[in-house]
Amino acid sequence: MVQKNVRIRDVARQAGVSTATVSRALTTPDLLAEATRENVFAAIRATGYRVNKAARTLRTRQAGAVLVLVPNLGNPFFSRILAGISARLGDHETSVLIADTMDRVATGKSLVDYFLDSQIDGMICLDGGLPENDLQQFRDNGLADRIVFACEWVQNTDLPSVRSDNIQGARLAVRHLYELGHRKIAHVTGPLDNVLTHARREGMLIERGRLELPARDEWIIRGDFSLESGREAAEEIIRMENRPTAVFCASDQVAFGLMSTLTARGLRVPEDISVIGFDDIELSDFYVPSLTTIRQDRHALGTRAASLLLECIDPQSTADGHRKTPVIVDVELIVRHSTAMA
Amino acid sequence: MVQKNVRIRDVARQAGVSTATVSRALTTPDLLAEATRENVFAAIRATGYRVNKAARTLRTRQAGAVLVLVPNLGNPFFSRILAGISARLGDHETSVLIADTMDRVATGKSLVDYFLDSQIDGMICLDGGLPENDLQQFRDNGLADRIVFACEWVQNTDLPSVRSDNIQGARLAVRHLYELGHRKIAHVTGPLDNVLTHARREGMLIERGRLELPARDEWIIRGDFSLESGREAAEEIIRMENRPTAVFCASDQVAFGLMSTLTARGLRVPEDISVIGFDDIELSDFYVPSLTTIRQDRHALGTRAASLLLECIDPQSTADGHRKTPVIVDVELIVRHSTAMA
């Protein structure tokens, strides 16, 4: 009779060999003596180990590597999250491999294949924009329970995720500007359809409403988290007749692009216009002026995502229920020199 | 008789099956009918295919992935090199996996094991500080001919490499400052024992000598390419009695740290002191003031390293000789607003 949840150690016990020998029989069978090999194969058949692709997912950390999908390695925001992931997985002798989802080859079918070939044991995805088609392929192959989202997530799924308290962060940003006396507050958003964009804009709108601040459509400016979109937002602001006195940017990179162009066009930060970012990347403390921002605890995002993944891929674990509730990491207001009294 | 340079297609021909079947026999033998499996194993024995670890290296791009080792993903310098690598390898249906050498797990023995398990086909190393012990392990396992260095390299080896013209870049930087009337020029170096540190300092010293500029020991300040080391260099410069009027920094990140602290301490850039960097990362155009720097063609560094690796791992290739000469990529002076007349 075929057992459920058969693991490599069950095969080893059945065959009377070590788990390493079972592993060799599967990966380098030609290096084993024929009798040993046939003995292991007989045990595989008897236990039903890995008789189909779905059963493969029952094997735990065979590859010794986890893949992290990053939406854009050009954004220095991700480095400390990766360090947190490495720190946690390093304790489990698991390597961290990284792929940029902007690299078209690393996405789509080839990535699923790579996963199916068991060259990775699990995946931490920092990109909420992973195509539904890819997710479906992971589900079809029984791999969806080996994926954890961090920072970003996919709406309307119950895949486990770790994220910052984005709504609270946006509220803190608006309240800080309000307390400095600002009433005309603009917001440069992230890219349309990004989950972070929605959460930060929502927090901004909630707090603006609560404080009964004036609202103008043109004060919500579309960006995409990039330096260049900060530059474009600055040009828009400079053209406005009813100019805001403060700008909340959806990322630090946007804030740099904005401040650079405002300064080049003769507006002083923070004397003429206050600017606050979101992320607190390392450079924020080294910009001129240093950037007031909302700090995401990037190391904690990384370590907690790694812990969650280790739990998911551990077949002993029974903690299925609570994984569906997102893990929320606190954010913090960091006041520096880019914001001042209105 | 055992053939040399046996490839999977030779085994397939011998067994009268497809290469996919040979591959399955090696990776998921339990999924094949026993007769097919034994047929393939007989062909493996007959051809001598992969009878030892060294023979494994004769297989070409089986994993469909190349590993890129990056010394510090927190430095945004690397992103465009990675994009160049991806662009080139994408044409060959090869995925790019990235590991940070600061992640201790990804280095040393586990990395060699990962390579030996053929989960990667080759490696592009952006870290010249790879321990000799690791290199020796790669050599011992016949893998040294599947490694290409880019940006950085290892002294006294003939491993293939692609690098910027660092000496020329440093000379351009000093000459630019000289032409603006500067005579007292300081240099913030990279970390001790780094090949880029040596090359850029050498270029700086060559040009300073050629132009007969004054030299003071204290004007050579040790840094480590980081923002923080730029901050420390600024503090040193502020304390000097004989202060330089211009500073050539070994990286853009150092220049940002330097400018941020000089400004905070009341010195104006470029009015009181000119600053020039090295790299031309994206942010350099968005700093206040925008940074004059030496542009490395990061995309070309990536594409050329990938081309060189593809050539190395192609068993058909006979271009062994010229790989030992480093490929040198031109650099360019980009004049912005952080340098001015002395």
From TrEMBL, chains A, B:
Keyword Ribonucleoprotein included in the entry's annotation: no
Q: Which residues form the HTH lacI-type domain?
A: 6-60
Q: Which UniProt keywords apply?
A: DNA-binding, Repressor, Transcription, Transcription regulation
Domain of life of the source: Bacteria
A Gene Ontology molecular function term for this protein is: transcription cis-regulatory region binding
UniProt keyword Glycosyltransferase, yes or no: no
> What SMART domains does the record point to?
HTH_LACI
Question: Per its UniProt record, what PANTHER family does this chain match?
Answer: HTH-TYPE TRANSCRIPTIONAL REPRESSOR CYTR, LACI-RELATED TRANSCRIPTIONAL REPRESSOR
Protein name as it appears in the record:
HTH-type transcriptional repressor CytR
What is the protein's species of origin?
Answer: Roseibium album
